[in-house]
């Protein structure tokens, strides 16, 4: 079990294997810039009640902090995030105070499908895309213009995916979203959550080529 640095991939629906609770991890609907820095965990079985906040702490690690509800007050403590390398889509929340462990499994309903995790980095006008198996094994990398659409990006990804093209593939963003034809016209850098960096002059792309 290794410590995980990062947090965007948490967005989505999870099942707590110890309690069978279903949790939805998302950003809060708020115009407050400080609130937007948080990630919240809602429990739809309790009228979508907000049970936890997920925060990145000063050392870059991620913690889940309980909200103070009547039925949790005094029972919950702060949990540290770990990733279970042995099972794709599984994470561990561990409380060093109580020793309690919460095991969460990502509920991605894609049957008979090989999942490909996408990550990206933007440098100037270049998007450097990496494709991964859920086991953590890198499949391939490809670079493209930052504003390349999801539809055009798939064509550029084909050479690196040749060993897998006989299978049904589904592509997952770092936000936990399965990319679909409905995303075709959107820039892939935006779908990967790395479209906020400032654009540099187009010369950056020509130098890269």
How does this model look, in words?
The chain is mostly beta strands and 209 residues long. It folds into 2 domains: 2-106; 114-208, Ubiquitin-like (UB roll) (Roll). Helix content is 9%, strand content 37%. The chain is built from 3 helices and 14 strands. It has helices at 150-157, 188-191, 203-208; strands at 2-3, 12-16, 22-26, 39-43, 49-56, 62-66, 79-83, 90-94, 101-106, 114-123, 126-132, 138-145, 169-172, 178-179. The chain has an 8-stranded antiparallel β-barrel with strand order 2-3-4-5-6-7-8-9. Strands 12-11-10-13-14 form a 5-stranded mixed β-sheet. A hairpin with a 6-residue loop joins strand 7 and strand 8 (90-94). The protein is elongated, with a radius of gyration of 19 Å. The N and C termini lie far apart (40 Å). Mean pLDDT is 76; it is low at 1-8, 30-38 and 197-209.
